[in-house]
Amino acid sequence: MPKRILQGVVVSDKNDKTVVVQVERRFTHPLLKKTVRRRKKFHAHDEANAAKVGDIVRIQECRPMSRQKRWALIAEAADDQA
């Protein structure tokens, strides 16, 4: 089974080798037909401590690294804000 890949924004990098990534998903409400936004935070392993707050990153499912970390940082997405 392929591993899931999500894209989100780093909201915290205070922990060593760990970043907290907020992922937003949008879907249409089944009854109201209105677009709804839902956000969820994931703890991800960042071996090099490369990601900083505000970076747009991609995370991939991996083996459990700790009690909360089930994701690993794979790459930083292209930053369009220059």
Automatic annotation (TrEMBL):
GO cellular component: cytosolic small ribosomal subunit
Keyword terms of this UniProt record: Ribonucleoprotein, Ribosomal protein, RNA-binding, rRNA-binding
Family: Belongs to the universal ribosomal protein uS17 family.
Function comment: One of the primary rRNA binding proteins, it binds specifically to the 5'-end of 16S ribosomal RNA.
UniProt organism field: Kaustia mangrovi
HAMAP family found in the cross-reference section: Ribosomal_uS17_B (MF_01345_B)
Source organism, top-level taxon: Bacteria
Protein name: Small ribosomal subunit protein uS17
GO molecular function: rRNA binding; structural constituent of ribosome
Gene3D superfamilies: Nucleic acid-binding proteins
Record-level GO BP terms: translation
